Predict the 3D structure of the following.
Amino acid sequence: MESVVLDGLLRPKSIAVIGASTDPSKIGYTVVDNIIKSGFEGPIYPINPSADEILGLKVYSSIGDCPGEVDAAVITVPAKFVLSVIEEAGKKGVKGLIIITSGFGEVGNKELEAEVVAKAHEYGMRILGPNIVGTLSNAEKLNASFAPVLPLPGKGALVSQSGALLIAMDMATFTRKVGFEKLISIGNMSDVDFADLVEWLDNDDNTSCISLYIEGFKDGRKFLNAAKKAKKPVIALKSGVSAHGAAAAASHTGSLAGAAKVYGAAFQQAGVVQATDLGNLFDLSLALSLQPAMKGDNLMVVTNGGGVGVLSADAAEKYNLPLKFAPKELQEELKKHMPPFGSAKTPADLTGMAGYDWYHDSIKAAFSHEWVDGLTVLYCETAMTNPMDIAKGIKKAIDESGVTDKPVTVSFVGGENSEKAMQWLVENHIPAYAGPDVAIHAISALREYARMKEIVNEPEEKIENVDRAKAMEIIKAAREDGRNALTEIEAKDVFRAYGLPVTTTKLSKTEDQAVELANEVGYPIVMKIVSPDILHKSDAGGVKVNIKNDEACREAYQTIMANAKAYKADANIHGVAIQEMAPWGTEVILGSVNDSTFGPTMMFGLGGIFVEVLKDVTFRVAPVSTKSAARMISEIRGAPILAGVRGEAPRDQAVLAETISRYANMIVDLADEVSESDANPVLVYEEGKGLKVVDARIILK
Ligand code: ADP
Ligand code: MG
């Protein structure tokens, strides 16, 4: 549905330029010139009320005067005239508007931008922009932009939120020798956004891979859903992940959830490959646009030099695709295609003597062997061999193997002849890079892509036995009390309503009542200050553990009260909590933030008082399935502690995964109310013995 609507915008049969100019220094001139020069085959209508001819084309004074249909209109008139030309375009039946004009939301002129969108939608038109460079497509032979030339042809599409960067990347396609089929400038995203483009490009026959330069999303979840559904690889370079409102966070989770972590988690969940920088965006775009995903972990490396071979092994480990030894029979087979002093282990070292034949024969044998899931071919230029010969040997071996569902990447290290050979490989759809590290990074991205896609479509789970009304009652009472921080007791009541196992906790308002409740709960107990103004209770001397009798209970009551008053004289103190003392267990943290882009987001990690120091935490956009929760548990650095190390019994990871999933469902259910929360620590016991939440914190929106 969306796809058909965007056709008029991105695959127009006819195009008008509203604001076409006879002045070569104006964008309105450059755009007409570019459309002509790019070889566009449909009618081009320059619109300008005070000109007759521009670059040999007849000029129309208004779009309404154009003789034929107009699919797309490029708008370059000043912002104040945009509304009225949109009205005319709408009446003419234009389908899509490419609004290059700036001076809208990006300079605070949000109202005008909203009016422009409303006006376009009145006529069923879609908008790309405003504040963009335009769009460029080799297949459509259309440069509807003020970028100088169509990019070097390639198979992927590149969408950029930065206009200047789009122009720079356009020209860099020639020096980097990485081509693109399309470049699309997305600008203010007043209407068409990343999600719309991912959906349209996924159905575009000329596009094999979708690369994105992203500064931010208006609706993160919409993008995630579009990316999840995409059948083609999506690669994202996200800028601005360094400083992200971590400063004034009230919870542990809030202070740990930087944009880098949350975006990283979201991209992973949606199966989006993350580029690390601009160069990497080009490198990965090349591999993902030309090669299929890598379906297993067995990477074969063939080389003529030990040095680049070892570098590839290092890179493989770094990029999470460690090399393994091939099975005996493949090693035996490879030995036939190398000198006796070569090595058939991985990397297979054909030695510096290797020329066309050895490369060809060993690659053909390896690539068609069922154990091999992907191949990286390395070559060091030597005085005895010709890089172009080697390149041809590689290509021929791959073609003759008949294998089309496994990826291959190449790296030649050498001089100009190596460069030329690599360019020839790229033209023949084999990605080639100047260094072994990059070739391995590229093939590992093809592996990572397949791994992510396998888990992207796991079904969501709905949790049962939830008392939402009870949770809302507690939240409402706190709000009526003029607070947005729940006390530990209130937060635990909310957690309990969602079936999380919390310690029995009661509120005492006097020393006598403390003793009475202590006896009800049963010694040993833990006593804690209860105050909405003291969020980190230990810092205030507000926690006393392992209290064994009435005398100690009275003493603790006095001390906690005195400490709290000393810590914050005007703190509103509800009393002292009396709670069961949970037995020792491994301390973990469960927490949530309501991310401004992706909404409720779940955190898990090793907990306790050092959580901000160790930062051993991982994130997922909620909800989180039990399976996905299990992956969160296994991906933190401290995972072996939970799995059981040095004779320690393994912890109850099954119950922990269920609890993470339940918690994540809770924050989705309460997304309108809760801004941050955490359970820190949660004490996790041996397998079969479950866990206990001993501290709870909820901050309301
Ligand atoms: P805060 O994080 O506000 O300082 P906590 O409630 O987390 O306070 O208590 C501090 C520490 O005391 C916890 O990290 C935990 O080690 C221990 N603790 C707290 N409550 C209990 C309990 N009910 N059973 C056992 N240990 C507890
Ligand atoms: Mg705590």
The pocket of magnesium ion (ligand 2) is lined by residues 680, 695 (CB under 6 Å).
